[in-house]
Design a protein that fits this description.
Length: 148
């Protein structure tokens, strides 16, 4: 039995080898019911069964890794009335639970803010929430700082 602690990395999809990308897609096909069996799914993705079994327990989309976690976001917000409020409302509308908020003093028309939220009850996956937050008027930049 391996007692080593697992280490996780957040890696952009474009640098992953094809076998890992296809493994993720196979898992998505199975989850959505677009393939009835693993064999059907790996054939659709032109992936060997051995490659699928090699990687299947080690790769998953970011939103699955962040389910029921606390995620801390760093935001750069325009110094305009209501920007932080719209960010918080967007999180609340998707059933995110805001745990902490910290906003710095605005300098040169922008302010740094950090928001920690619990993702357990999110109505949408975390990636979709991040996309919505990036579209909020006044959000100049958004990054995931970490998760616990």
């Amino acid at each position: 039995m391996n007692n080593q602690k697992s280490v996780f990395y957040l890696v952009r999809e474009e640098i992953l080898p094809e076998a890992i990308k296809k493994t993720i897609k196979v898992k998505e096909l199975l989850k959505r019911g677009e393939a009835r069996t693993i064999n059907d799914a790996v054939e659709k993705m032109e992936l060997s069964r051995s490659a699928y079994y090699k990687y299947k327990d080690y790769v998953f989309p970011f939103y699955e890794a962040s389910k029921e976690k606390i995620v801390t976001l760093a935001l750069l917000l325009e110094h305009k009335p209501g920007v932080l409020s719209r960010v918080l409302n967007t999180i609340a509308n998707e059933k995110g639970s805001v745990l902490t908020i910290n906003q710095g003093i605005p300098l040169q028309g922008v302010a740094n803010a950090t928001v920690s939220l619990e993702t357990a009850d999110l109505a949408i996956d975390l990636e979709a929430l991040l996309d919505k937050l990036r579209l909020v008027d006044g959000v100049k930049r958004l990054e995931v700082l970490g998760q616990a």
